Amino acid sequence: MNEITIAGNIVYPPKLRNSGTLSYTRFRLAHNHSYRDGETGEWKDNGATFIEVSCWRRLAENVCDSLGKGSPVIVTGRLRSRERDIEGEGGRTERRTFFEIEATNVGPDLVRGATRAVDRRSEPVARQEDVAVSEALSTISGSPFEPVPGEPMPETEVPAA
Predict the structure, then answer these.
(1) Any idea what the CATH number is for the domain that residue 78 is in?
(2) Distance between CA 89 and CA 26 in Å, rounded?
């Protein structure tokens, strides 16, 4: 499998689109090639690589709801290339190769900030889980941390000081 992971910043805000019944979004990612000069200790800019990222279905919806222009992200997915003819200066046509990542995972880059995740369970799943937890709790008599009358206490060792 041709899989890649890359970190960068989103160049323009992702917009949710539909293709038939499937949701998708595309955004451009800028990966900067900065490095710290060993002699001076200063950061040097060595350009950037721009790459298109496509997301489908639930991932597309979550990306559009969660991320925006400038967001630092980490993207994992399949790397694809395609060639296109581009009309250049003087009417010349040049064949260029473009790279795109079909994302399987997109997330915030936590090296550069903190965030909170939101659990987006579907309503039927959330209801089913709530019922299961309620049923499990109703079968417990008393606290699981209190001794049950008539049962011996478990042996516990006290750690040596």
Answers:
(1) 2.40.50.140
(2) 28
Over the stretch 86-125, which tens digit does the pLDDT of each residue have? Answer: 887 778 888 888 889 999 999 888 888 787 777 666 677 7
CA proximity to 73, closest of 16, 113, 46, 117: 113
Looking at the domain assignment, is residue 133 inside a domain?
Answer: no
Cα(107)–Cα(42) distance, integer angstroms: 29
- pLDDT tens-digit readout, 6-41: 999 999 999 999 988 899 999 999 988 888 888 888
CA neighbor of 23 nearest in space, from 66, 69, 54: 54
Question: Would 88 be classed as within a structural domain?
Answer: yes
Residue-number span of the structural domain to which 107 is assigned: 3-113
Neighbours of 34 (CB within 10 A): 10
81 domain residue, yes or no: yes
| Residue 14 token pair | 């992702």
Q: How far apart are CA 152 and CA 49, in angstroms?
A: 67
- Please check whether residue 65 lies inside any domain of the structure: yes
In single-letter form, the type of residue at position 141 comes to: S
What Cα–Cα distance (Å) separates residue 106 from each residue in 44, 64, 77? 27, 11, 9
State the pTM of this model.
0.64
